[in-house]
Every structure is written in structure tokens, then in C-alpha cells.
Amino acid sequence: MEVHYLVFVLCVIWHGTDAIMWNLAPNTQKCLKEELHANVLVAGEYEVTEVTGQRVDYIIRDSKDHILSQRDSITKGKFTFVTENYDTFEVCFISKVPPERRGVAQDVMLDIKIGIEAKNYEGIGEAAKLKPMELELKRLEDLSEAIVQDFTLMRKREEEMRDTNVSIVLMFQSPQTTASYSSVYSPWHVSWVSPRGRFSTFAGISRPKSSLNSTL
Question: What GO cellular component term, any one, is given (predicted)?
């Protein structure tokens, strides 16, 4: 089954924006992936156009393939879960069409809210008998905490990227690595991982090189 990943920035899609919609082709699946802190509430609402003889399932997993929520043959509904650890989570919608049928694409609408956006503050205020001002202060307190957590996550990502870049530079600065690489490939062969998870190549074609003194 073909898999497509819809990659979005944390603060754009997962932080209380309008719902998104896309076409789900027959017998394919599309997933949204994001990193989240521990103890974060996630609430989602979805709707799928119905097509006779076709079904769409959804599944929510972490990086260890632990299932947080799952449902088959969906049309419209909601889901909620709370993250236990800092991890990468994905929400996948899967189209399933029998081989004997000619499938058609289905529209999928998804609205995801996390953290304070997912909380029902009206219900919290009623349960705790909070005054309007007290409830607003509670919301602002939660918002401040969420902002601090987001900046902490951004700083952690920055440090991880810096460590990775330093490791790569040190690796390619070593004489053994330089000689080994230059003896086989030209510096024009460059690869990267695209957002869809595929390897792509650009900037020229690999070619043999005979000199071991060449550098990158």
C-alpha cells in the first residue's frame, strides 16, 4: 500500500488552526506526524465522505508502534489521547477497497487541537466553580506553560542539529574518510531525505576518481 506523509510545522497545524482537508486515493494511506511533549492532551475531529463498497480506517501510533487510538470504517467522529512521553506521533487514515471494485478518492477532513486548545475550559470552570476572571487566569497560566515547553523543544532540536552537524564535519575532515570517499566518488553526488521519506539525488552524476589527495 502506498503511504504519503503530510508533514506540518508544530505551531501551524497542531496548535488550534482551522481544519485541513485532502483527497485519499483508493488503497492508500496518508499520515500526519509530529513531535509532542509528555502529558499533552490531543483532541481531534474527523469526517470522511462515504462511498459504497469502500472503507476508511484511522490509527494513531507513537514511534514504538504503540496504538493510542484506532477505529475501522469511519465516517465521522472524534478522538482524544494524552501523550505519556516526549515522542513522535502519527495519525494515519487508510483507504481499503476490494480488488473487484473500481475505487474512487474520498475527502478526509481533520481538525486537531493540542494542549490548551484541546481543553474544555467551560467545563473546567463549571466543575471547579471558577469565576470568569479566575478561569481566564487559569487559561493564561496554561498558555504560558505551553509556550515555555515549545521553546524548550525548539532549543533541544537546535542542540541536536548542531551536534549532528559537528559530527558530520569531523567525520569528513578525517584523512581516512576524505581519501576513501574521494577515491570512489566525485563531490557532485549529493543525496538527502525528502519530506516524503524518499531519497533523492541532485547536482551531478557520480564518477570515479583516481587521486587519493582530492578533498571535498
Answer: membrane
